[in-house]
């Protein structure tokens, strides 16, 4: 099919999607700062819920993070049940097991404490339980008729922004295919951005998750479905990451840097839940699917490559980000500002230990990776659609030389 006809098809599909994605969405009440998670628990005790299902993972239980929230809920007269079976990239059966606990324990609310995996799993549990569904029934767009059970989130990483988005990603138990649940009903009622909880996060995870937040911010900022609010959230998140990620990686106990990163993740989530992401995610999802490369790490590696390809079509926006982040002055030529912004991303990756290349990508998968990335990218309001040759060169550029 000629390229321009294909492009018209992509644009028609996007126009349909835009109507749905741009609908007004609820926004969680947010508690920010040291011990915000405990303040959130206190507020839960005022809404009349009797028993909360705490959705988390075993490593967090081992270091005692959820127990602090559980103790506060208990002190305020709210009973809890625990489901700590969440694993990275939670599967349908992991989520269904949580739904069973929720029903057995007769919980009337859900509190997610964890990274994106725990929050995504909890979102699906709350939606499914309220609607008498199983996890798989929730996959797709707006599958729940009734509102979710009251849902609260305490992110323990700063990156996914899951505490504010309309999407939850789970995966098929056998094929590991990613399955998307998209519904404004899964947006939590309230979230706590608590830097105390993030203090123990190791530097590599801080780096990768922080770059996921930056990718959400930048991809949504350069996309074509902008709204003034999304632009504001996107540039604020970008500046917060550029000013704080190195500090948070170098000293995990830096509470101010941790709090800024948590806010960055939240703002970036608000931006991309409306303006979506782009080719960075389209490529990194394939690296995750084929080789299990962690999402944030893959995004970090791919981000500067995609920006190099978008430096003309998204030049104005990238120059704006450079000025907003004080990398240059608005009197400078646009192309110089764009260069400064992209070079700052390369340097940030270097500083926080993100490798430039990976040895996991196999020759025989490149065609599939490129096809899937081009297909996914065409579903986002990107500054321009990539040619196959460009995307192939990008993926080749991620490979460590033999
Ligand atoms: Fe992401």
What does this protein look like?
The structure is a single chain. The chain is an alpha/beta fold and 402 residues long. It has two domains: 24-198, Rossmann fold; 200-397, Dehydroquinate synthase-like - alpha domain (Dehydroquinate synthase-like, alpha domain). The protein is 54% helix and 10% strand. The protein contains 16 helices and nine strands. The protein has helices spanning 3-21, 36-44, 58-62, 65-75, 92-104, 116-131, 195-198, 203-222, 228-250, 255-275, 279-291, 295-309, 315-324, 334-351, 366-377, 388-397; strands at 29-32, 51-55, 79-83, 109-114, 140-141, 151-155, 167-171, 178-182, 190-193. The strands form two sheets. A six-stranded parallel sheet has the order 1-9-6-4-2-3, with helices on both faces. A three-stranded mixed sheet has the order 5-8-7. Helix 11 (279-291) packs antiparallel against helix 12, helix 11 (279-291) packs antiparallel against helix 15 and helix 12 (295-309) packs antiparallel against helix 14. The longest helix has 23 residues, at 228-250. It is globular and about 60 Å long. Bound molecules: fe (ii) ion (FE2).
